[in-house]
Amino acid sequence: MRVIICGAGRVGYGIAARLAQEKFDVTVIDQKKELVRGVTERIDVRGIVGNGSYPDILAAAGAREADMMIAVTHSDEVNIVAAQIAHSVFDVPTKIARIRAQSYLDTKYADIFSRAHIPIDVIISPEQEVAEAVLQKLSTPGAFEIKAFADGLVWAVGVRMADDCPVLNTPLKHVAELFPELEITIVGIQRKNTLFRPHADDQLEAGDNIYFVADRHKVERALQILGDSTLKARRVILVGGGNIGLHVARSLETLGSMKIRMIEANPERASFAAEQLERTVVLQGDGLDSEILKEAGVAEAETVVTLTNNDQINLLSAVIAKREGARRAMSLVNNPDYASLTRAVGIDRYVDPRATTISTILQHVRRGRIKGVFSLLDGQAELIDAVALDTSTLVGEPLRTVSLPSGVVIGALVRAGKVLLPNAETIVNAGDRVVLLALRENVKDVEQMFRVSLEYF
User: Is 313 found in the same domain as 272?
Assistant: First the structure.
């Protein structure tokens, strides 16, 4: 597959690195020479210096032969025009664009990005996606990762094993017998820096990060059994009143019973946020100022969420909030180098917008009937939601007789709106939604399993 990426910032670089790793033919365009040089020196891609919305630049990048164009520059307008030119002049089949301005995304103007007007096939809104990730983590504070699949019926959850977790040092094949209410499928275990597929005789150890799949309604009970009794937040402080902070606050307001405080440094933005929000108290001030945090009620807050556009401020503000009495802290972290520091400095959770955006794009890069993708640990594995077809090798046989790749674990099936956890005798039917984990080296195998073959027609 030939892919053009407009924008060589963190997101563009991350996408290029993932696709190049999978042997895609990738060309990266950016107006800054140093960014293009950095990409081409580190990964096996072509680089072109120029504006991705200019026809001659797209032509030089090979747009006439491209299968996909991904526009993730910092300018919505450049991304929009690049998609339009890619469609109108070069007939690129798939156009993906990052759009930040909420005015473009207003439902009143939903038909702007249609084939008859501006033909963008997939719109990525980082602010909305990050806000949704924050909300999911707030809803399940005991988990460090939450991702919904199969129209929200199935949740994939990441949990750290504490020293007192009751399932430690027990072979996984016996866990279901000892804890029949623990209705989950453990699909991945991260021990130190390595993620591996669990087997029946494996045992969990304190400090492991595990990923499990379950019916969304069974997740809370599962977390209780695994030893987490963390209560949902009722008092939340948001540091940062930008698009993400505003979206999170609006969504929290709909929950009704939550007390919300927002701290925003910019006076004009603070006034704007106060006008837009109904039940959120907005304080104008510096999130690094302990007095402002005290005024917001940090000592009584279950969770402080730092959402400014500055990683250093987010991390420091979270640390100060914990020092002043906040039970938990969550930070927005754009720089992956900072992500590894969060636990060391006492920050409980973090959200990586780059990883969120890359996962969304991978969903549309993957071949086959793939409905959702979530990348784990910088691409060590992917959680995948796919539709089983009549021609799939999975269909019609008990799973014990199906030759699954060694790095693939099926976590759940959804059939007629019901979530099923598979066992050796489970038979996958055509039309089932299949939620699974695939290690990096087996992602291509999964694509093949869910591809539409000629026999399907």
Answer: yes
